[in-house]
Automatic annotation (TrEMBL):
Domain Ubiquinol-cytochrome c chaperone: start-end pairs: 145-288
Domain of life: Eukaryota
Gene Ontology biological-process entries: mitochondrial respiratory chain complex III assembly
Listed Pfam families: Ubiq_cyt_C_chap
GO CC annotations, alphabetized: mitochondrion
Ranges in coiled-coil conformation: none
Organism: Zygosaccharomyces bailii (strain CLIB 213 / ATCC 58445 / CBS 680 / BCRC 21525 / NBRC 1098 / NCYC 1416 / NRRL Y-2227)
Record-stated family: Belongs to the CBP3 family.
Protein name, UniProt field: BN860_05446g1_1
Source taxonomy: Eukaryota, Fungi, Dikarya, Ascomycota, Saccharomycotina
Length: 335
């Protein structure tokens, strides 16, 4: 179960989110001066797409293939047991704490299932999830309407993979034995969910066809991760090329403004993740920045203040003699 207490708040809770404006990192008592004369206001990815004057359309724009809402499969993270506000009955919680203490379970490994395999997968899946006859979410509108991507199951998978890769980057920065576990749980949950959706939501009745789809999606995932990694470690031009080939399907009528907006969107997510400690990220204290919000870099003073607050928070938590076994962690909060 994911623990969401006042101790485990996301770095994003320390951000000032301004719709269609920008995201400013700040500390609770020291907010960046928005009226500063020399402050450069970056447009959000969504705002950037409005600058497009090219009437580009995806090749198969009319080929809608959303799943049927009547056969929707709920996420594991939709369960009340995975809800941030859910509280186990006291006897169940006490029994669980006893098991953890008796067998000295490594909670940093145990958390990978509910955090990566449920909560983080839910974040990635829901970004562009769409159903026939239902209104699109704000993030889904960015991809399907602003970027004019086709509303197909395959396109949803590509958008989901992009967000999973963003999380992979942060997971690989964790200690190897934990980061690898988080990645594996996320991938396992992805393909388990896709298999279920193909059968129950897309009405695919042949196991052989589903297996072929899964193999194809696995190939796409590996190729996308490799391409995005290359872009991440080189420059924005290489990253844009990877996004064009995967997210936009290598279309010839791609709008460069749209491509720039996605690069900005990706870099914003990566920057927020880079400011998070292993401890915060591992307990599920992250959510993607909305496309209608932009991210500005912290000043050196703000970074130092944020780091100091994080250290104090976890030092107080770890020194508490009443800390529950399930809240213990060996992961760093100083990085």
């Amino acid at each position: 179960m994911i623990k969401h207490s006042s101790i485990c708040k996301s770095v994003l809770s320390q951000l000032k989110l301004t719709p269609s404006s920008r995201v400013l990192f700040h500390q609770s008592s020291q907010v960046y001066d928005e009226k500063k004369a020399d402050a450069k206001i970056l447009k959000s990815p969504e705002e950037l797409t409005k600058e497009s004057h090219l009437e580009s359309k995806p090749i198969d724009f009319s080929n809608y293939a959303p799943v049927r809402p009547g056969k929707r499969k709920t996420l594991l993270s939709d369960s009340k047991y995975e809800s941030k506000n859910y509280q186990l009955p006291r006897w169940k919680e006490a029994f669980g704490e006893l098991i953890i203490k008796t067998f000295n379970l490594d909670m940093d490994k145990v958390r990978s299932g509910p955090v990566a395999g449920s909560y983080y997968y839910g974040l990635c899946k829901n970004v562009a999830l769409q159903y026939e006859g239902e209104e699109l979410s704000r993030s889904a509108k960015f991809f399907y309407e602003d970027l004019r991507l086709p509303r197909t199951f395959s396109q949803w998978f590509q958008i989901t993979v992009l967000h999973e890769w963003i999380l992979f980057v942060r997971m690989r920065a964790m200690p190897f034995k934990y980061g690898r576990n988080y990645q594996q749980k996320l991938v396992d949950r992805t393909f388990s969910d896709i298999e279920t959706r193909l059968f129950d939501e897309m009405n695919v009745t042949s196991g052989r066809i589903v297996d072929q789809y899964l193999k194809d999606f696995n190939t796409q995932l590996r190729g996308a991760v490799f391409a995005y990694d290359e872009g991440f470690y080189t420059d924005d031009a290489t990253l844009a090329s990877a996004l064009w080939r995967n997210l936009f399907g290598g279309r010839k009528n791609i709008d460069m403004v749209h491509l720039e907006a996605v690069v900005r969107y990706v870099r914003s997510q990566l920057y927020v993740l880079s400011r998070m400690s292993d401890r915060d990220f591992a307990v599920g204290a992250f959510k993607f920045v909305s496309p209608d919000e932009s991210v500005e870099r912290l000043t050196a003073e703000q970074e130092a203040s944020l780091k100091e607050k994080t250290i104090k928070k976890y030092e107080a938590m770890d020194s508490d003699p009443n800390i529950l076994p399930s809240d213990r962690s060996q992961l760093s909060y100083k990085n």
